[in-house]
Amino acid sequence: MDGYSPMMNETAVLQIAAAQRAQLLYYGYDHLVLDAGWFWNITASAPHLDDFGRPLPDPERFPSSKGTNGLEILARQVQDKGLKFGVWFLRGIPVQAVKDKLRIYGTQYTADQIALPATQCSWDNMNYGINTSHPAAMHYYRSITDMFSSWGVDLIKADCFYGGEIHKDEVALFSQAVSQTTRTMTLSYSPGNGANVTVAQWLVDNGYADTYRITADTWDSWTGAEGIAKQFPAAAAHSKLIGAGDTYPDLDLLPLGHLGHLSGSHSPPRSTRLTTVEQRTAMTLWCMARSPLMFGGKLPTDDLTLGLLTHKELLRLHEFSTGNHPVYQAGDAVVWHAVSTKPVTLVEHYVAFFNLAVDHSLTVAVNFTNLGLSSRELYSVIDAWDSSNLGLYKDSFSATVYARGSGLYRVIKDLTPPS
Question: What's the whole-number mean pLDDT along residues 292-299?
Fold first, then answer.
């Protein structure tokens, strides 16, 4: 949603899908997710609901949804382009459904009987929380997930379920509702505000998520609550969970390309405010931490952004690596390490250098023994960004890194026969 208004329409979605197929699908960017706002009726200035309190697409913006179609036709059109289709969902039951005492599908209970106003999302007042001990609670969440399944949804971005305001009972109920549908759907939890590794561990241990956000929203700044720099401690804290149970910590959308809304806190529309150096740093961290790569900008995008998103070596790191973790942080110098699971030679490692300083370069170094490599061997160091061979090194490697910058290197055991 970084590059588009929440008031997205059907024509725009199909244009995005066509551009995504043309520019990004080949490189693995295969999900198109309809973010918040798809159910908001602009004319009525209220959520568009069915008779059972479930969100439906606004028929003015999504004309194919008229009648009982929901998002089924749009999902099929997106999938016909080789993509997968996702939707955003907010924890709880709409306040409007509670006021109107709408019946819960498959029961004689009404929305007001399962609502918990005290557990309303702190940053979005559209829904009330749900009393999970009520017998109709699961019926409501199942009615949501069954509806999404019938539309052909492939991914659910479930928001405000966990994080700084964890609602474990609703997480468990909604996760079970997703798992009980007849369609396999990826479940991605988003906190909307702070998350922590203890909660993430609980999600993983219980098999409640496929991906899960570990920070609040990320936008195109280096510092501040929505900046790139905040991702480093979060990524480090969650590194032990990368790939655990085939789940992945999520660093949020990549704020690259053309971004911004026409109004509000994220206006005006603009090219990303991140410098080229900062954009490379973000892409390097996202790939080293194996975060889901979700592009937040407009499509089609420009050549610079496309080059970042489709860089062969970074995508290889993202897909074919293991043991991804921070080696150390000393002041503003940060070093990450991963082992290739698809090495060109017998031994191949990735090392990422980061400089978090705002205004000065740093020399960043790593000892090969800290990578689990022998100090008696020679290793070729190759710049992963431009494939240049930086030479043979023994014991350690160092490089100068620009402020807010990064370096990504392949460390390969030298197989040259002795002369």
Answer: 96
- Burial (CB < 10 A; 0-12, 13-18, 19+), residue 329, is middle
Three-class HEC string of the chain? CCCCCCCCCHHHHHHHHHHHHHHCHHHCCCEEEECCCCCEECCCCEECECCCCCECCCCCCCHHHCCCCCCHHHHHHHHCCCCEEEEEEECCEEHHHHHCCCECCCCCCEHHHHEEHHHCCCCCCCEEEECCCCCCHHHHHHHHHHHHHHHCCCEEEEECCCCCCCCHHHHHHHHHHHHCCCCCCEEEEECCCCCCHHHHHHHHHHCCCCEEECCCCCCCCCCCCCCCCCHHHHHHHCHHHCCHHHCEEECCCECCCEECCCCCCCCCCEECCCCHHHHHHHHHHHHHCCCCCCECCCCCCCHHHHHHHCCHHHHHHHHCEEEEEEEEEECCEEEEEEEECCCCCCCEEEEEEEECCCCCCEEEEEEHHHHCCCCCCCEEEEECCCCCEEEEECCEEEEEECCCCEEEEEEEECCCCCC
Q: Which of 336, 385, 330 is nearest to 357 (CA)?
A: 330
The rounded distance, in Å, linking the Cα atoms of 84 and 100 is 35
Number of Cβ within 10 Å of residue 268's Cβ equals: 10
Region of residue 400 (phi > 0: left; psi between -120 and 50: alpha; otherwise: beta)? beta
Helix, strand, or coil (residue 133): coil
What pLDDT, on a 0 to 100 scale, did the predictor assign at position 328? 98
Which spans in 133-275 are helix H?
137-151, 168-179, 197-206, 231-237
Instruction: Give the closest residue to 94 by CA, choosing from 139, 132, 63, 56.
Output: 56
Residues 101-138: tens digit of each pLDDT: 999 999 999 999 999 999 999 889 999 999 999 999 99
> Residue 181: what residue type?
T
Token pair in block for residue 165: 């305001």
Residues 403-418 pLDDT 10s: 999 999 999 987 665 5
Reported pTM: 0.95
Residue that the structure tokens 């918040």 belong to: 36
